[in-house]
Amino acid sequence: MDKKIDRLQHYGSILFFPISIIYLESVFKLAVFKELFNIGFIYMVLFSIPAGILLYLLCSLFNSRVNRILSIFLTVFLTFVYIVQIVYYQIFSTFLALFSLNGTNQVLQFWQEVLIAVKNNAGAIFLLLVPILFLLIFGRILFLAKKTTGKRKAFLAGGMICFQVAATILVSMSNTGELSTSFLYSKAVIPDLAVNRFGMLTTSRLDVKHLVFGFTSIDDGGEEEQMTAVDDNKGMGTPYQSAKQSQESTGKPRLDESKNSSNDKVNSTPEPSKEYNIMDIDFDKLIAGESDSTIASMHGYFKSVKPTKKNKYTGIFKGKNLIMITAEGFSPYAVNKDLTPTLYKMSEEGFRFTEFYTPIWGVSTSDGEYVACNSLIPKPGIWSFYVSGRNYMPFCMGNQLKKLGYGTRAYHDHSYTYYHRDVSHPNMGYAFKAVGNGLEMTKSWPESDLEMIQKTTDDYIGKTPFHTYYMTVSGHLMYTFNGNAMAEKNRELVKNLPYSRAVKAYLACNIEFDRAMGELIARLEKSGLAEDTLIAISPDHYPYGLTNSEISELAGHPVETNFELYKGIFILWSKGIKSEEINKPCASLDILPTISNLMGVEYDSRLLMGRDILSDEPPLVVFSNWSWLTDKARYNSKNGKFILAEGETKETANKQYRADISQRVNNMFTYSAKILDTNYYNKVFNK
């Protein structure tokens, strides 16, 4: 009988951690993705077993008392990680990256939102606590077994290694199709897909690995696993050239090639002319003088990218004033003729972009700003805007217009250090003021955009030419009348609307933003500057403080969650501007090159990831999970479905077209990260 108990204790202690991890992963996956038994369940189990064995081995190194304490600590820590991720996902619709832990104090400012998220996920959180409860009840029995022998430890360690190797081999064999399992594991960070495919624990391990060691090079055959090769001899160059092809196009030998190897595939770069938005960059000279193979490869790639042509809109606002606004939680649903008349007027009178999207990225608002201001895709796992503060960023409008003699200022009506804007925004060429460094605001949460406009316009109106950037806050979640000052302020104006309380609160918040825009235009008109000022407004992200069902209320129908959910609005307005409807798919990534072209500034379209919306360049909208859409088709990375646009056929959007777009998407993510990591613009312009 004693032997049976010993055996039960022994095997129970060994199995506790693997079973607990599999259990925690399963509860987490059901809570977040509402599914469990897909191919990802197999990978999750395979990776959970060696992780669990490792934790057991750690808890077998000491005496039974210490082992029990250590096992409780590790179980509590694991459970805490899963609970934090569920709560964070509930609030921000994305997962918490390890890099973001440096901003934990900022997230905790939203303690009310945290409490609501905990309440909404109480059932899942209780289930996640089960392993802790089990250990508290039975842990004394489990970890009173006789000390594990060295032989058994060696056997378990060998088993752990075998499971890990087997799981890794299985992953490496799954290397076909777009966004293959192998690609997700070693060559990209796509949190939603990775967590669903491998589990939260394995994704966190990969996050640490990528943060410390970087990625397996995508030049090492990554694209061949990923998509079909593309012909790179199409006219003046192609935006679809692969990373590997661009390395070849540098004319420099690869490490495994002879020093005498050569390559004649390089497409000639057009000379700077009035026809294209390019700068006088001698990529051949840069390549010849570059000793770093990564930088040389980047030179080769950007040399090959097809630039955008200048067009009838080029320079129509040259010399005019520019006000750019990233509006917190703004959406087309907030534009209403009666509730928000100024925003309605601006959206109807200016350029009307009917197919504009605002994808959400890993660091929500900060990444949303980064995309709109720099036309680069944020690097997953880090705070890209903050990191960019150490780099030379010549193409953001602050730096472009500052060198032309503009007064350049930026404002935010919340803390100046939030998301480290005190680092990123001055680096864009702005004199930056926010709460805490010069902008005095009435204390409330959120603060009033109207008050910000009233207190800042005197800084620049009358001091032309000027360029001003605003990051608003009145539209911030949570959308409630009991904790949101802007919703409470405008409550009477929405009380009779046929919507739920949260939707009414959201609309009330945006009434404050509308008043701010009304005040801004009134002051411009009073100064005679309304016709000489271009105003650009876009959201940082969709209003994820509303549930999908609440957004569907506003839309009047169930909203599709991979594409339609991110349908945004881009207002481009100046007094007296002729209204024009643009039906081309576009996104926040395209804002910077579009405005640069309208303002007639010199920029190089090859070095940005977005494209001038008003050019003849074929459209492409990319999302954080590597889904994409064009005017011909869309690809949903969550289910792998390729859907033709209305009126298109498999002849016009064929297999090669799909491969070309997939390659371009791959390149956009890859080279955005490399630009950030290498301070690439500094290398090009020698600054």
Task: Describe what this molecule looks like in 3D.
By secondary structure, the protein is of the alpha/beta class. The chain folds into 3 domains: 2-213, no CATH class; 222-304, no CATH class; 321-617, Alkaline Phosphatase, subunit A. Helix content is 47%, strand content 9%. It contains 27 helices and 14 strands. The chain has an 8-stranded mixed β-sheet, sandwiched between helices. The protein has a 4-stranded antiparallel β-sheet with strand order 11-12-13-14, covered by helices on one side. Strands 3-10 form a two-stranded parallel ribbon. A hairpin with a 4-residue loop joins strand 13 and strand 14 (641-644). The chain is globular and about 95 Å long. The protein starts with a helix and ends with a helix. The model is unreliable at 217-240 and 246-268 (pLDDT under 50).
Key structural traits:
687 residues, Alkaline Phosphatase, subunit A, 3 domains, 8-stranded mixed sheet, 47% helix, globular
Helix content: 40-55%
The CATH architecture of the largest domain can be given as 3-Layer(aba) Sandwich
Distance between the termini: 78 Å
**CATH homologous superfamily assignment of the largest domain:** Alkaline Phosphatase, subunit A
- Low confidence ranges: 217-240, 246-268
Strand content: 5-15%
For the sheet with most strands, the description reads: 8 strands, mixed
Predict the CATH topology of the largest domain: Alkaline Phosphatase, subunit A
Averaged pLDDT: 89
Q: Give the total of domains.
A: 3
The gross shape turns out to be globular
